[in-house]
Amino acid sequence: MTTSETISRDLLSIGAVFLRPEAPFTWASGIKSPIYCDNRLTLTAPEVRGHVESALAETIRREFPEAEVLMGTATAGIAHAAITAHLLGLPMGYVRSGAKDHGRGNRIEGRLEPGAKVVVVEDLISTAGSCIEVVEALREAGAEVLGIVSIFTYGMRKGLDRLAAAGVRNVSLANLDTLARIAAEAGYIRPDDVQRLMQFRDNPSDESWIGGNA
User: Fold this and answer.
1) What is the pLDDT, as a whole number, of residue 97?
2) What is the CA radius of gyration of the chain?
3) Quick one: what percent of the chain has pLDDT higher than 90?
4) Could you give the CA distance from residue 83 to residue 205 in angstroms, rounded to a whole number?
5) For the segment 76-112, what is each residue's pLDDT rounded down to a tens digit?
6) Which of 34, 38, 190, 212 could bridge across to 21 with cysteines, CB 3.0–4.6 Å?
7) Using CA atoms, how far apart are residues 7 and 41, in angstroms rounded to an integer?
8) Are 150 and 56 in contact (CB under 8 A)?
């Protein structure tokens, strides 16, 4: 079984991924979605958490062997960055969504030396806007960002285009394609719902998938 298949099964088994093609969720952006992902739930499921953190560590060893520091995204990526950094014996910190309005006004927490080779740890990538802001903040601080590792990605075109434009590579443990297939095989959704999920991924603004019109 591949890492993507294992993590997909794990996320489904603990209810970290909700699939509702018949009753879509509405994201903060207003987009209607057949899927909602809450990877924070992995932290309260020790066996799944172990799979996730081990896979993140192995991915960093394989894809970014020069990594010197891990930086989590606030807030969901912080715990994953801390546990993975512990497994790898690396320093870690995190990047706030905005600078503090008190104390030293830090946006980046933890020691970050100019020129440090950094890997960003993110829990979820959809349109990639928030993680790219983190990358830009780290670059402004003088870090060399090697890339991003994330638990799950929807694989949306907008997100892929943004990552390419920013010149940053993301490696995700699991993706919507694999998860949709596993979900259909395990009976979480009907087999014909897979195409509806793919239509949503390819063009979130086209809501014709709602009601089974894909």
Assistant:
1) 80
2) 17
3) 86
4) 36
5) 999 999 999 999 999 999 999 865 444 445 799 999 9
6) 34
7) 13
8) no
Torsion sign, CA atoms 139, 143, 145, 150: negative
CB environment 67-102: b (16+ within 10 A), e (fewer): bbbbbbbeebbbbbbbbbbeebebbbbbbbeeeeee
Non-local CB neighbours of 172 within 8 Å, separated by 6+ positions: 125, 149, 150, 151, 152, 153
pLDDT digits (tens, 9 = 90+) for 169-212: 999 999 999 999 999 999 999 999 999 999 999 998 888 888 66
Q: C-alpha dihedral over 78, 2, 46, 14, to 10 degrees?
A: 90
- Say which residues have a Cβ less than 8 Å from residue 44's Cβ, sequence separation at least 6: none
Residues 6+ apart with CB under 8 A from 140: none
Q: How many CB atoms lie within 10 A of CB 196?
A: 22
